[in-house]
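User: Just a sanity check before I run the rest of the batch. Below are the structure tokens for the first item. I only need the designed sequence back.
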């Protein structure tokens, strides 16, 4: 932030209509990526909490008021084994 200043994420996202559905879909992707890439549960939970708070802040259009916890629960259920989607990867390479 010292070099380039505040990122102003909310301001940069104002041209896009972001409601609870978009927030939940983004959280689904982020949670799935963290589940696949971050082995430390405490770190992963902290990052998910931080991203959830940020995602709630990005919402800029009225929609149903639900939290990101729905998307996080769905991401945990739907986390896929990337070796199933990419046959070039062996299970050892993904650990």
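Assistant: Here's the designed sequence for the first item:
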């Amino acid at each position: 932030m010292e070099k380039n200043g505040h990122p102003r994420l909310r301001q940069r996202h104002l041209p896009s209509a972001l409601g609870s559905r978009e927030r939940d879909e983004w959280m689904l992707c982020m949670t799935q990526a963290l589940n696949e890439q971050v082995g430390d549960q405490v770190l992963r939970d902290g990052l998910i909490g931080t991203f959830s708070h940020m995602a709630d802040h990005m919402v800029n259009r009225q929609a149903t008021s639900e939290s990101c916890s729905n998307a996080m629960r769905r991401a945990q259920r739907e986390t896929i084994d990337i070796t199933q989607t990419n046959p070039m990867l062996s299970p050892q390479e993904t650990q």
